[in-house]
Known about the structure:
- It is a single chain.
- This protein is mainly α.
- It is about 70% helix and about 5% strand.
- It is built from 9 helices and 2 strands.
- The chain has helices spanning about 5-35, 40-45, 45-55, 70-85, 105-150, 155-175, 180-190, 205-210, 215-240, and strands at about 95, 100-105.
- It has a two-stranded antiparallel ribbon.
- The longest helix has about 40 residues, at about 105-150.
- The chain is elongated, with a radius of gyration of 22 Å.
- The protein starts with a helix and ends in a 7-residue tail after the last helix.
- The model is unreliable at about 245-248 (pLDDT under 50).
Amino acid sequence: MPESSLQLAVSRFAxxxxxxxxxxxxxxxxxxxxxxxxxxxxxxAGIGANIDEYAPKNRYRADFASTDAxxxxxxxxxxxxxxHQQGHGLSALNYQSRYGTTPLLRNAEIVHLQDVAKLVDWLxxxxxxxxxxxxxxxxxxxxxxxxxxxxxxxxxxxxxxNLAIGLGVSLILLLLIGAKAVFYQLHIWIFxxxxxxxxxxxxxxxxxxxxxxxxFAWIAASILILALGLFSLLLFFTNRFLCTGAxx
Length: 248
């Protein structure tokens, strides 16, 4: 393969995956503004039923099962906001029980969510790096295209095949290892060893109202679907503005 053709192939490959990571970051923040569609998952993914079953069994908090859906939506929105604000406001989340105003979270849960907030901050910095890398890769792709004088900048079928292979292999590995095993192992690697991250439903309203880890699977799927939609738009407009004028 000529050097210029190899440079173009590498530029296209890098652009596809950096663009996907950028779209995943954008998708995260868009869905965060919508509280990751929690009302949908509450009503149609068994979260409400999970609360009804396990909240009455909680050993530390009373009467959460009697809260209405709007209260639960507000509390989840408070958690989402807090993990995007360095964990501030977690201790202020509460609901009304027979004992009056009752804190939603125990100390171990607050510590865990503060760890999550630190992870979100780190991921946000990574997204900024990817966002800075994207225009440089696009410019590199533009320069490679000038040497080849071809259109489109990135063939859609090639880009989607690239993503399908990468995501397909990832999905197969996830199924072979087990989604729950991967979820737990990531927690072991990411969070401090002496900080609790596993909570039984009977001990944690946080875990109960999220039906952990089920909710995270729904959130991950929605982030990926939205990211692929954003990637499709980005691919279209990149091809539109990096046209070289050569015939297709």
